[in-house]
User: Fold these one by one.
Assistant:
Number 1:
Amino acid sequence: MKKVILAHRYCDEAVERLRRDFDLAVADEEGGLPACVPRHPDAAGLISFLSDPVDHDLISLMKRLKIIANFAVGYNNIDVECALERGVMVTHTPDVLTAATADLAMALILAASRRVIEGDAFVRSGRFAGWQAGLLLGKELNGAILGIVGMGRIGLATALRARACGMKVVYYSRSAKPRLEKKFGFARVTFLELIRSADVVSLHLPYSPGVRHLFNRDVFALMKRDAVFINTARGPLMDEQALADHLEANEGFGAGLDVYENEPAVNETLRRLKNAVLLPHLGSATERTRREMAMMTVQAVRQALGGRRPRHLIPEWKERLKATR
Ligand code: DGY
C-alpha cells in the first residue's frame, strides 16, 4: 500500500476513504507535519492545508512524492517551483468554495458598512435605550461603487451578490471580461481608477510575491476617506500595519478582514479598532463546502496514485502539461 500523509484529521469520511486505499499517517497524531514527514520519507501523497508551509526542505524529504493535494483554492503555502522541478503534482480545491467565500465577502461588506458588530456589542452591553435617529449610522450600499480587484470565480460571485444590493461594479483584472461587462454592466478600470472611485474595495487575487503589499500606505491614502476595504483573499496582499494606521487615523474608513499578513497573528492596533471587522479565516467554512474540499483532496490523491491525471491540478501544472504536449 502506498503511503499518504494527511496533515490534519478533519473529515471522518475522508479519513476512512484514505485508509481503505492507502497506508495513512495523520501528521496531527505524530507531532505535526515537520515531525511526521521525516518519519515517512516513502510518502507518495501529501494532503496539506493552507496553514501548512510545504517548502523545499519538506518536499525534498519525500523522495517518492507524486502529489500534494492542497485543501484550499489558494496554494501559496506550497513551493510550487520545487514541486514542478521534481515532477510532484499539485492540486487545489477550486469551484466548490466559490459561493461560501463570496457569501463571507458579502457578509464583511455588510458588517463593515452597516456597523453590525458594533451594534451587536452595543445591545449586549445593555446600552440600548430605544430607537434613536442618529444611532450607529452606516454607509448605504445601494448605488455605491464596488471595486473588485481580481475578477476570477470568487470575485465574480461577490460582484453578483453586491449587484443584488444595488451596488455598481467596477473591476480590475489582467484580462478583460467582455461577456460580464455586457451581461451585468460591470466596467473594467485601471487599478488607480478603481481605488480612487470605489466606495468598497474587495480583494480577490491569488497571492504571489509579485503582489505582496499591493495595498500599502500609498494606496490606502488614495482611497476615498470613507471607503471600506475587504480582504478575503490572502493577508500578505496588504500591508497590515499600514492598514491599521490608516484606519486609526481615519475613523470613517472601514475594513472587513478574513485573512492576515502573519496568520494566526493579528496586528494589535487592528484588534482594538471599531472600524475593522475581523474574522478568523472563515472564507470556505461551511459544513458542505469543507466536506467537499476534503473529498476533493482524497479524489486527487486517488487519481494521482492510481496513475491518472488529477482533475484539479493548479494552473502552473496545467501550463507545464500544455507546453510538453
Ligand atoms: C482558500 O481555499 O484558499 C481559502 O482561503 C479557504 O478559506
Number 2:
Amino acid sequence: MIDEIRAARDEALAAVRQADSLESVIALDPQLLGKKGRLAQLKTQLGKLDTIDEKKVAGQAVNEALQAVAAAFAARRAELGDAALAAQVRAERLDLTEYVGKPTRGHAHLVTQAWERLEDVFIGMGFQVAEGPEVETDWHNFEALNMPIGHPARGEWDTLFVDHAAPGDEPGRTVLRTHTSPVQIRTMLEQEPPIYIVAPGRVFRRDTPDATHMPVFHQIEGLVIDRDITMADLAGTIEAFTKAFFGSEFSSRLRPSFFPFTEPSAEFDIQRPDGSWLELGGCGMVHPNVLEAGGLDPEQWSGFAFGFGIDRMAVMRHQIADIRDMFVDDIRFIEQF
Ligand code: DAH
C-alpha cells in the first residue's frame, strides 16, 4: 500500500511538473486532487488493511501525499499564471518609444512671456494692471486723447474702423483700438487718483505684415496720476524700469518728441551695455485736456504716461529676425524656445 501511495504521488508530481500551460495544469486538478484521483481512491481502500497500525501509517502517507501534490499544483498554477499574464502584457503593450524624452508640456507664447515679465516688473514697482476693450469708441481712442475729428495726428494712425454703431454714437465711430492709450481715459473715469497702472494689450493697425510690422501687435501703457507729479518722476520711473527689466548695465534717456496726449512729450531710448541706443517708446506729462476728458481737474492732479511695444521685447530677447515667425505657429520655430 505504501509503495502504491508513493508511486501515485510521484506520478502526480511529475504530471504537475510537465504541465506547460495554465490550461493544462488546471485540467489536472480533478484527476490529481479530486475524488476520482488515484490518491483519493487509495484513501477509500484504507479500510481493507489488516491492523490499526497499518491503517494509521498508510492514512498518514496518503494525507501527506495529497498535501504535497496540492502544494506543487498551487505553485505550478501560480507560476504558469504569472507567465501567462506577462505574455499578455507583452502582447498588448503600446510602443511609446517615439514619445520618450520629449517634453509633455508646451510653453507660453513668446509675446505672452514678455507680457508677463513686464507685468511682474511693474507690479514690483508698485503698479496695478488695468485693461480695456480691443474694440473701442472713436472718443476713447482719439478724441479724449486730445485728437478731435480732423486733427492731423489721426492720419498717422492707420485705423481699422468697425462697421458698427455703438449706442448713442454715429456709425463709423467704432474702431479696433490703434494703441493702449484709451485705457488711460477708462481708468481715470473709473477710479479716483492716485492712479499707478500699466495696461498691456492687443492693438490693431492697417499695416501689411513684413519683417518688422504686423497689423495686430501688443503694447503696454503706463499711467501715473497723483499730486505734484513732475517730469523727473517720469524719467526716474523709466530709468528704474530699464534697470529692473533689462539689467543694471542698461540705462535710459528721454528725447524731446510730440504726442497730442502729452505735453511735454518725449521718446525714451535705452542704452545697451555696448553703448548703442535703442528707441523703446513714447512718454510725456499727461495733457490737461486729457485729464479733463478723464474727469480730473488739471489744477489739482498731474501725471505722466508712457507706451511701448511688447512684441519688440520678445524679438530683442530671442534675436528673432522676422516678427512674422512669432505668429505662424510653425512647430520648428516654436520648439526652439
Ligand atoms: N500711444 C502711442 C503709440 O501708440 C504711444 C505713447 C506715446 C503712449 C506717448 C503714451 C505716451 O502713453 O505718453 O504710438
Number 3:
Amino acid sequence: MLVDNHNRTINYLRLAVTDRCNLRCNYCMPEEGINFAKNDKLFTIDELVRLSSLMVSQGIDKIRITGGEPFVRKDLMVLLRNLASLTGLKDISVTTNATLIGPYIDELKELGIKNINVSMDAINRETFERITRRNHYDVVYNNMIRLITEGFNVRINFIALDGQNIEDIIPMLELTKHYNVSVRFLEEMPFNGGSKEFQSIKWDFRAILAHIKEAHPGYYKLQSPKTSTSINYKIPGFKGTFGVIPSFSRTFCGSCNRLRISATGDVITCLYAKASANLRDIMRADDVEANIKSAILQAVGSRAKTGFEAQEKYKDVFSNSMTSIGG
Ligand code: SAM
C-alpha cells in the first residue's frame, strides 16, 4: 500500500500515454501546439505494461489512461488488453476527446472497460469548434451518444471558460434529462502552455452552481465517495447527474488519492507541483524494479499537503500545458 507523508493512501494512477493531441483546445495549449516529445522520449507499450504492473504491485488498483489524446496512439489497445488482464487492477478508465474512439468501442466493451470520461466543453457546434480549433463536432457528439447508449459509464468533462461557453452550461445539462450520464463542470486551471495567465477565476464552482440554480432551483446534493474530486447533484426527474470539480479552488486536497505519470515518465504528485522523478530513465537502466519502487516511495513520501502549498513551492508551474501533464 502507498501512503503519503500526510497519511493519504494513494491507490489511483493517472497514466498519460502520449502528450500529442488532435485538438488544440484554447485553454490547454497555444494554437501552434507545444513542443511535443519525440517518440523515443515516450514510454513504449511494453514499458507502460511493465510500469503498470509494478504500480499495481505497490498498491495502485485504479488506472486512468489519459494524455494528450490516448487514441492518437495506434497501439493503445495493446496496452488496454494487457491492463485488462492485470490481477489486482480493479478499475481501468480512459479520458478522451472522443474523436478517435469510435472503432474501438466494441473492443473496450469486451475488455470490460466501461468508465469513459469525454471532454466536451460545448454543446453548441460553433462554440465547440472555436474552443477546440478543429471541426470535429459531429464525430465527438455521435461517439459520446453511442458510448452512453451502449451502456458505458460516461462522464462529460466541461471546463467553464469565462466569455466562451458559459451559455452552454444549461443546454449541456439537458443531456442529463434524457440520458444516464454525468456532466461535470470543472474550474479552469492555468496549465495552458503559456497561452494566458491568471491568478483568479470568475467561474469557480460556487458561481457555476449559482448559475445552475437559476435554471434548476430544485437540484439536490448526492452522496459521493470520500476521494471524489467532484461534488455531485441531481435535478429531480432527470435521468443523469451533474457535478462540479473545484480544480482551481482545490477544496479536495485532503482526500487526494492520486499520482500522475506523464507520457515522458515524470512522476507528478500534484497538478500544481513539478515532477519529482523520471521513471523512463530508470526504466531504461539497470535494476528497474527496485529503482522504480524507490522513486515512487520517495515521491509519495514528500508530497505537498495541498495544491496551494505545491504552487507556492514551484512558482513557475503554470508554464506547463495539461497535454503534457496528462490532465
Ligand atoms: N485528450 C484527452 C481529453 O481531451 O480528455 C485527455 C487529455 S486532456 C489534457 C485531460 C483533461 O484536461 C480534459 O478534460 C481537458 O479538458 C482538461 N484540461 C486541459 N487543460 C485544462 C485547463 N487549463 N484547465 C482545466 N482543465 C484542463
